[in-house]
Write a structure and sequence with these properties.
single chain, 345 residues, alpha/beta, Rossmann fold, 2 domains, signal, Bact_Solute-Bind_Prot2, SBP_2_dom, Peripla_BP_I
Length: 345
């Protein structure tokens, strides 16, 4: 292993702290690797990099990833940028490379921007995966998806129309960052569903970025309401966006006039679901996604790829596509005012 000392190590550590936050869990267990010098054993180091730290969705994923480290006897490092920024993610990954981790699993803010640093990681002998959001598929060993992206996007579009109660009217689409590959894939699938099956639905604009911030989504929705008095529905992608949209609808008292559906956590959604400003939150269990990512990373580091139908403890049975690389955790869940209280995330 390469050990960095003195001024260089201090500089890199400082850069990593500026770029993002870190959660680290070392757990005792039997899963160990030989050091390059052959003079002893140490735990596998698995790094999980979210788009950003500090929002509820990635906080829930972090809990799952850390728990997997404890259960499986590996050292889990959960670290990412403090803003949804590709340049910050690059700095985080550079720091992880210097730590000689065994696996880096990343949810890119901008896949293309991360390709050079992920190639560098591979050149250093580090296994590269993506999770939550696809990276450059030529660089990753596994691509861990929450759901079937096409089916998920179409389901969100169908849910919007169902909740609207009519198959015509003006709608808008909110997203997180414009370069987020997973959000763009879902939006494309949702638009395809509308174009193919609901010709009476009219988009008032192209997708609107909210920078993964509820306050931005709130303000953008207020702007939409003001400029589009006939607006009937909003699809919001990225977990803060539906909350911001619902907040604006709630403030204006338009629960009966504007339908909002989107990708949000049940606990955060409950106040808006209860008064009808958010009609349905559609997601999965992000703690399980974090757990699955670490579990599969451990298998890869031990030279074992997952097979279709593998049952992962604390997650369930997974689907592995024919490419042997794409992993599907399972179908999404619709959270409503009737069931949101049943979930603790």
């Amino acid at each position: 292993m390469k050990k960095m000392t003195g001024i260089l190590a201090t500089a890199i550590l400082a850069g990593g702290l500026l770029a993002g936050c870190v959660s680290q869990e070392g757990a005792s267990g039997n899963s160990e690797k030989e050091t390059s010098g052959g003079g002893g054993n140490e735990k596998l180091k698995i790094a999980v990099v979210p788009k950003l730290m500090g929002i509820p969705y990635f906080n829930a994923s972090e809990k799952g990833a850390i728990q997997a480290g404890k259960d499986l006897g590996v050292e889990t490092i959960y670290t990412g940028p403090t803003e949804p920024d590709a340049a910050q993610q690059v700095k985080v990954i550079e720091d992880l490379i210097s730590q000689d981790v065994d696996v880096i699993a990343v949810a890119p803010n901008d896949a293309a921007s991360l390709s050079p640093v992920l190639q560098k990681a591979k050149d250093e002998g580090i296994i590269v995966m993506d999770w939550d959001t696809p990276a450059d598929q030529s660089l990753v060993e596994l691509s861990v998806h929450q759901i079937d992206d096409e089916a998920y996007g179409r389901h969100i579009a169908k849910s919007l129309v169902k909740q609207m109660g009519v198959e015509k009217g003006q709608i808008a689409i909110l997203t997180g960052g414009l370069s987020a590959a997973n959000l763009n894939t879902w939006i494309d699938a949702a638009k395809k569903e509308l174009e193919e099956n609901y010709p009476g639905i009219e988009l008032v604009s192209d997708k609107i970025a909210t920078d993964e911030k509820q306050q931005v989504a709130y303000q953008k929705t207020l702007d939409l309401i003001k400029s589009n008095p006939e607006l009937k529905g909003i699809m919001a992608f990225s977990t803060p966006a539906p909350l911001g949209a619902a907040q604006a609808v709630q403030e204006k008292g338009l629960q009966d006039d504007i339908t909002v559906v989107g990708t949000a956590l049940p606990k955060d959604s409950s106040p808006y679901l209860n008064d009808g400003s958010l009609d349905v939150a559609i997601l999965w269990e992000p703690d399980k996604l974090g757990y699955l990512t670490v579990a599969l990373a451990k298998r890869l580091a031990e030279g074992e790829k997952p097979e279709d139908g593998l049952k992962v403890e604390n997650v369930g049975e997974i689907d592995v596509w024919e490419d042997g690389k794409t992993i599907i955790m399972g179908p999404p869940t619709d959270f409503t005012k009737d069931n949101a209280a049943d979930f603790n995330f």
